Structure formats: C-alpha cells, structure tokens
C-alpha cells in the first residue's frame, strides 16, 4: 500500500514528506520519493510566535492550524508528483503536525498536555484520503511523555542480533533510541538528549540571516567560551533521569535571547562554536551516564540521522567526546538521514489503522501500550 508520512520538527525547516510502499506479509517498506516543503520566513515567524507563551494568541494558532494544513497538502502533492503517482493510489497520510507546546509533566498548566497543529481535514479533503494525526496525546493520557515515538519504527527497521544500536537523531532536538543486541520490544528505551540544531540555527539566523550553519563552517572559525561551556554542561536537563523529553519550551526563543544578551561581548562565531560543542557534549554525556554502563562498547554502533548529519564540525565534536566509539550515518545502512522521521510517522499511521499499539512504555513512561493517533476519514465518496 502507498502511504505518505509527514514530519515538521522543532528545527522549523519545513514539512518533510516521504512516499513509501508498505508491503505486508512479510513486512517490508520501500521509500519511493522524498521532498521538503520549506517554510517561508513569514510562516516560520508565525510558528515561533505561536510557540511563545507571551506572544501567542488564539486567532494566530487557529489560523496557523489551517495554514499548516494547506502546506502539508502541498507537500503531499509535491512528493506524489516526484514519484509520478496520483492521490487515488494513496491508502493514507500520516502527519506529525507542528508542535506548538509540549508539557507532559504539567509544569506550566493544570493538566499534562501537548499540542500539534496542521489541520488534517485540509489534507484529507485535498487528496480524498484518510489521514492519521495527533499521535502524542494518547500516550500522555496513558501517563507517558508523548515522546519519543520514533522508536516503534526504529525497532522494525534496525534491531540487530549482532550489535546494540544507538540511533541518534539530530533535528531541532536530539533524541536517541537504544536497541539492545538480540533485544525484544520490551528492551527498547529512548529519550531526548537535549538540543540538536535548535540553538545553532537560532544563532545563525540572528547573526548571519542564515537558516543553519552549513557544514559547521561558522562554528569551525570560532573558539569555546569557557564560562558558557561550563554553564551549559551543568544544565539541569542533562542530570534528569530518563524517560524524559524536551523541546522549544526549554531551549527555544527565550533561551537563545538570554544567551545573546549575556554574551554579546563575544564574537558570534564563538557563540556558535560553543553551542555546537554543547550539542555534541549533551549527546555524549547522556550515553556515558545512561547507556554505556549497561552495554559493551565493543558491540555498540552509533547511527546518526537528521539535519545534524550535514554539520561536519558537529560530527567531529561528537567523535571528540566519543573517541572509542564507531559513528555511522543512516545512508551506510541503506536508509536516508533526512527522511527518517517522516518514514517513522508513516509506520505509526499504519500501526494505527491496523489496530496496533505503537508506544513503548519503556521509552515514554506510559502505564500501558496504546493505539496512537486520530483518524480523519475520506471526506467524500
């Protein structure tokens, strides 16, 4: 069956769309086409504003929900055209949506909550197909963090009898999935490792009007700010025990504004160097605290995915902190680093439609496995 997975993450690059062919019995998945519907500068600013508690408004979120639904529809249409397929051939679309707020522990409100927008009805109507979205809410209702959800797909595609695999995604936020050697679903665990590209991208936009640090070239020109490095390495999130998740609420606009204000005496490239190094450090220190004590390093394979795989300097800093570890990228295993999360949500949508639970309690902390997502049906006959 043909399906489209949609992913829009904390990096705010745009909406990733992947067209896959899911083969049943025995299960296989084949990627047919991938594309990204990039956000305009204006859309990106509206999303940032909607995510900010002091700047956001109800009319803004309501309108943005429909706007992102339309952009999601266009992303689907582009990836179908790229593969020379039609909407009539689709079985379903699975959409993550754009996270506006994520507070699974009710730190800022009466109830635990999460909010992803990007109206599924717009997608369903435009393609005359069913859409699965809003995956995180059921897990939070079951007592979980609502994240990470990608481990379901990672287990299907990557579990190994020879190696313990650490699947490290570096998007706006970094997250790792641990697939123990010869492990079962119950053995899988995962958590967010902290910021991925989020702080780096925000500084590049502020100082250079660029969306990201291409290949890490700006960071490479700088040097560490010792005081800031020490402060970042003592961030409370790094000490918190898994399961845990984070996002723009901790490492977003307010965090970056404070860095810029407090370290304005330093060259911008030094700030970019320091936060790039912090992303690498946050990944490595989580491994050292929560993973390496339990698994043999000789049997571990670290596999990177996400936009951070294109930042050569970031990868060098990660190898610096993990000197005795082998670090790979997904392409070396026959998969795409860029489409990984979109593929995962296509598989999550498939699980929803076939009545399978797809949250891992060992990952999210939920009380029980549950079927995730909400289904918007085909709108007309």
From TrEMBL:
ATP binds at residues 9-16. GO terms for molecular function: ATP binding; kinase activity; phosphotransferase activity, alcohol group as acceptor. It is an enzyme of class 2 (transferase). Gene3D superfamilies: 3.30.420.40. Keywords: ATP-binding, Carbohydrate metabolism, Kinase, Nucleotide-binding, Transferase. Pathway: Cell wall biogenesis; peptidoglycan recycling; Amino-sugar metabolism; 1,6-anhydro-N-acetylmuramate degradation. The keyword Zinc-finger does not apply. It comes from the Bacteria. It catalyses: 1,6-anhydro-N-acetyl-beta-muramate + ATP + H2O = N-acetyl-D-muramate 6-phosphate + ADP + H(+). One of its GO terms (biological process) is peptidoglycan turnover. Its EC number is 2.7.1.170. Catalyzes the specific phosphorylation of 1,6-anhydro-N-acetylmuramic acid (anhMurNAc) with the simultaneous cleavage of the 1,6-anhydro ring, generating MurNAc-6-P. Is required for the utilization of anhMurNAc either imported from the medium or derived from its own cell wall murein, and thus plays a role in cell wall recycling. Belongs to the anhydro-N-acetylmuramic acid kinase family. PANTHER family: ANHYDRO-N-ACETYLMURAMIC ACID KINASE. This is Anhydro-N-acetylmuramic acid kinase. It comes from Enterococcus sulfureus ATCC 49903.
């Amino acid at each position: 069956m043909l399906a489209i997975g949609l992913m829009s993450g904390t990096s705010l690059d745009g909406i990733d769309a992947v067209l896959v062919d899911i083969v049943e019995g025995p299960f296989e998945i084949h990627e047919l086409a991938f594309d990204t519907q990039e956000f305009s500068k204006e859309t990106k600013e509206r999303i940032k504003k909607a995510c900010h508690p002091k700047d956001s408004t109800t009319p803004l979120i309501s309108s943005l929900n429909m706007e992102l639904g339309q952009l999601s529809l266009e992303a689907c249409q582009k990836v179908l055209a790229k593969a020379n397929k039609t909407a009539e051939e689709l079985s379903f679309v699975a959409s993550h949506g754009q996270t506006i707020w994520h507070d699974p522990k009710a730190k800022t409100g009466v109830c635990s909550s999460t909010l992803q927008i990007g109206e599924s009805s717009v997608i369903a109507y435009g393609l005359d197909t069913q859409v699965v979205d809003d995956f995180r809410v059921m897990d939070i209702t079951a007592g979980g963090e609502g994240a990470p959800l990608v481990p379901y797909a990672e287990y299907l595609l990557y579990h190994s009898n020879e190696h313990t695999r650490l699947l490290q995604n570096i998007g706006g936020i970094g997250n790792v999935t641990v697939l123990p050697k010869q492990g079962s679903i119950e053995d899988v665990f995962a958590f967010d490792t902290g910021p991925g590209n989020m702080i780096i991208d925000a500084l590049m936009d502020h100082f250079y009007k660029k969306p990201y640090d291409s290949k890490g070239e700006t960071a490479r020109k700088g040097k560490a700010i010792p005081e800031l490095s020490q402060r970042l390495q003592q961030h409370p999130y790094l000490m918190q025990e898994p399961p845990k998740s984070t996002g723009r609420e901790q490492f977003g606009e307010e965090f970056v504004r404070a860095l810029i204000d407090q370290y304005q005496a330093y060259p911008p490239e030094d700030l970019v160097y320091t936060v790039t190094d912090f992303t690498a450090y946050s990944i490595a220190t989580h491994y050292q605290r929560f993973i390496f004590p339990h698994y043999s390093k000789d049997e571990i394979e670290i596999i990177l995915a996400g936009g951070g795989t294109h930042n050569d300097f970031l990868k060098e800093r990660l190898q610096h902190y993990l000197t005795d570890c082998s670090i790979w990228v997904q392409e070396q295993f026959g998969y795409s680093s860029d489409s990984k999360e979109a593929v995962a949500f296509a598989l999550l949508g498939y699980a929803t439609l076939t009545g399978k639970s797809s949250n891992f309690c060992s990952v999210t902390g939920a009380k029980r496995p549950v079927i995730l997502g909400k289904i918007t049906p085909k709108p007309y006959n």
